[in-house]
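Dear colleague,

Following up on Tuesday's group meeting, I ran the structure prediction for the three-component complex that the binding team flagged. I've pasted the input sequences exactly as they went in, so you can double-check that nothing got truncated or mislabelled along the way. The structure tokens for the whole assembly follow below. Feel free to forward this to whoever is handling the docking comparison.

Inputs:
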Amino acid sequence: MRMPLSAIIGLVLTGAFLFVGLFAQFIAPYPIDSAVGGVWEGPSAAYWLGTDTIGRDIVSRLIYGAQVTIFVALASSILAFSLGSFLGFFAAVRGGWIDQTLSRIVDLVMAIPSLIVALVMLSVLPLNLTVLILVMGVLDSTRVFRLSRAVAMDITVMDYVEAAKLRGEKQGWIIFREILPNALSPLVAEFGLRFIFAVLFISTLSFLGLGIQPPLTDWGGMVKENKDGLIYGKAAALMPAMAIAALAISVNLVADWILSRTSSLKGGRGG
Amino acid sequence: MHPVLKLVVQRVALGLLLLLAVSAVIFLGVEALPGDTAQAILGQQATPEALANLREQMGLDQPALTRYFQWLGGVVQGDLGTALTNKADIAQSIGQRLGNTLFLAGCAAAISVPLAILLGLIAARYAGRWPDKLISGVTLTTISLPEFVAAYFVIFLLTQVFPIFQPVAMVFPGMSFWAKLHAVALPVIVLVLVVLAHMMRMTRAAILNVMQSAYIETAELKGLTPMQVVWRHAFPNAIAPVVSVVMLNLAYLVVGVVVVEVVFGYNALGQYLVDHVTKRDVPVVQAVGLIFAAVYIFLNMAADVIAIVANPRLRHPK
Amino acid sequence: MADTLLSFNNLKIEATAYPPGEPPRHVVLVDGVSVSVEKGKVLGLIGESGAGKSTIGLSAMSFGRGGVRLTGGEIVLNGRDIRTASAGALRDLRGREVTYVAQSAAASFNPAKKLMEQVIETSVAHGVMTKAEAEARAVSLFRQLSLPNPETIGNRYPHQVSGGQLQRVMTAMALCPKPDLVIFDEPTTALDVTTQIDVLAAIKRAIHETGVAALYITHDLAVVAQVADDILVLRHGKKVEYGSTDQIINAPKEAYTQALVSVRSIDHAEKPQAAPVLSVQNVTARYKGTSFDVLKNVTVDVAPGQTLAIVGESGSGKSTLARAITGLLPPASGRITFAGRTLSADLAGRTKDDLRELQMIYQMADVAMNPRQTVGTIIGRPLEFYFGLKGAEKEKRIQELLDQIEMGKGYADRYPAELSGGQKQRVCIARALAAKPKLIICDEVTSALDPLVADGILKLLLDLQARENVAYLFITHDLATVKAIADKIAVMFKGQVVRYGQKTDVLTPPFDDYTDLLLSSVPEMKLGWLEDVLTTRKMESAGN
């Protein structure tokens, strides 16, 4: 089986971001929060990407920012995923009023844009990591719910599931042996998309000043800190902006590849 | 009743019901979350007596449901309450700002809709060939950008590298239409970029879906010219899905506009909302949140209604 | 020849396939086919799926679907080679000299436009006649094709008329511009058998009366025998045999053609009546939330080691009966006894032995097997589940079952996607056999297969029945299959059993009207059958 170049690039970059995030403490050349140079210095041998609005090394802050951004995005997408896919499968297999109730609640939440719901919620909730992860995870779980319910519904009407029911198999076997293996690849691709969404979401919230609070930093917050420099031709704000774009694009490339393989995976091991 | 009318009435009723449910979620949901409005106003040092006084004054000692219906009654009559922070009438503060937001979103829609349809047509016409790959590649990139990131790239490019525009978008009453247009040019460009990608991709998919139908092959096998095939056979069937796509993406614009207003310091509804979230001014947030939700629900409803009306099977029942 | 309309000379057609996740693959669809059609004659193109018959048909308009390319040879239409003709020249000939009737008229009509507008479009666009003339001609064609309300049917939208009618409207659309040649691409395949016969008769009459030449593409030799003057038999994109219809049907030379002609002629003597293993008594059933009985007072039974065939068209309730017996749709009233015990109405109330002894095989083997499980797992699961077999013992039994379905070693590790259609159905049979059942419900198990493959499956089923003494409840719409396999027959119509008994009794006159219609509608492999039937049958089909 051959892997397209775009998928390889995506995988390598995604891996690199994860690595940097995981080992930020060991990689970053300077501490996260100390002013080591002048304000908005240009790139130099000491500060590869220059310094920020109060003279901190941008590369180091990007590396620490990667840690926070990826951690929050990963945690909330894992939450969204576990919650959404569990309830989605549950609704599909059980049907009846359970399905109806869950689906109507999800319809209701999805009737309003996530950002607006998040803003409304954050106007009363305290701003800390746990709250952010919970709010983002719960809001995004609605999308996972819809997808996994639809995928599971498609599979439950298949004759092989009926055959298993007629054989007398228990619910556990039907969910884990008949449905799940066939639902896996669209769900894996969806996880990638949910992760990107979470990265964009947390970055946007931080940019609006409603996400990660100092002394911690993430990429969205870094854009906010340095945005005023742009008017004076200081490109510092573009560095975290590019990091967000690069992470989102690389995960997108991987998800695209998985999605395109979904149909061939359906037929066994593939060629 | 004609089935189309029946379905449309059903869909509109559903939209209204949804809006009612959303208003309940916005009001009661916020009530249910941990957090104390009185505390938020008076701060951590407030004495219990002062807190109790304020609660009574604001009616916070009454049951949540009672206050919800009072609030809803006010909203229906155009009374959105007063802001906690400056005691200003919320409806009044919103008026002018809503106009500014609609102006900005309207400009973005006026450019992005025809452009997205045109690009979608081109991409679908050359599906799999280089114009399609180019358009798809570029849009895949812009889809991966959050609004504010796209905004700063555009700002840097168009105010620094090529200094064509001002980085701040100020509009005020009494400004001429043209001056306003010039002022919102940059935020409009950003919004267009952000909405265009989704809209164009979905338009392309909708058109391709129609072009792959068996009846298009029938038309080709009739020896019709490509123009006749598109105009007589593809267009009448593509119009409903495309309009639907456009509506859905205009709803998406609602979110984009909030962030873009903040980026450009554009004095409108989104900026107003974010400001008051920061200040924890709950009544303002609830009122503005409800307005955004209403616009979003309305656009989604419109998309469905158009799809229903345009369906020949429903329009001409058996 | 002066009167040759169309000739293919050494035609070669290729395509590039793009399997997802794999490098593109080059395939030859048609290789070195030469044949010609004379003015006013009908050439039948016959073959199984993948034979390249539709591809050749479309190439008569120099059209390739998707990535299909006409890469070699000549396609001579009215004296000129059209294979390499310009786009403009092709537009000129498509819809004027050659027209097309597709298998699925329902998908081939633009849903947003009235039928008349679409029927006359070609005639007007090519300047063959004025709008008024074209409309007049369309109405007369509608009448010729025995469509109801020929004057006004053109004002309707495609979804407002039935499938059989739509197929005839499409024929009118093809004939309207007075073409030299019409391509019929499986025009009756998607229709119920009693509707098929009317459409077939209408097409035949219209061809005859307009004097047009035609390419008639089908997988059903009995159908093509009714309309074609000559027949070309194709297999894997190559010519197998070409000759007059009479010669192909009555004296086929090639072994493959002989097999196609003798298909469905399995001789099965009915077994004597015996005490039943399954007995369905007065079963009435309806779907949840509806007030309409899909099964009305159905009473049938099956003897051990015998086959009861349930015959009917779509909507007759035959598959619903299977759901009622398996417990998926608990009957509203009535009783089902099996192997001497009364079965619980719903699935949850049945014992493991009830479930084991009553197995099911489905129409679409593709979706009846979990694509993520190997053949070994699929067959092994019932062994493990019902008999607790494990390890070597299980492997041995799996191999025995694979041998029984005539699939050798090495298949246990394969996934369903790596099997052919016939092999997939065999694996499903093995899975059912693994449970050592007393009865297997076979729901249209051969309908999705090519005739020769279907024949193989039927022979296998008969063979297994003789060896294992298993009873079959065989659901089908195809009477030829019934004759080949049944001991008893129940004919179903609108949820009721209208005729029931031993095979010979059911198939011997006098018939009730519906059974007569159903029996007489099944195309027979003989010339002139269509004419005979139309003059003798009693009831009009539902499609009219």
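The CA atoms of residues 15 and 298 of chain B lie 7 Å apart.

Cheers,
M.
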